[in-house]
Amino acid sequence: MQRNVQTFIDEVTADQLAQTAVKGAYTQLDTKVADWLGGFLDNVQADKLAQATLTTDHEPAISFRLETSVINLPLANLTEIGKVTVAEETMPIKLYMIAESEAFRSGLRIDELGSAEDVLADRVAAESLLTTWLTAQTDRLDQIMTADE
Length: 149
Known about the structure:
By secondary structure, the chain is α+β, with helices and mostly antiparallel strands.
């Protein structure tokens, strides 16, 4: 799966993103990974730019997203994506895991899940990697909260 960078920017700007959402209890988020990833990958398989959100009730607030992109910046940073890429280039679509919380020093954590082709070719490995990553993010938030007490 590839996109011309300008086409990618135009599609995101026009909100041509397939969006899915899953909600789960904070202490049981890992049980939602299959649904969260499955809905996202169904859209990727259909050659759609996609975003999938996993939400939970927690204080401080934390949210998780899966996004398709040409580089490792959230889609919300589209202006920066345009500045650091060449509009005429065609780039592979990669899948990114994003955690956002005011409790994190930078407010954001973004990691690559893999290229669209690789993840679609091995969904089991992708689910395992995503589960491990999600657990690491919630563990990190728990440590921050414990340190603040």
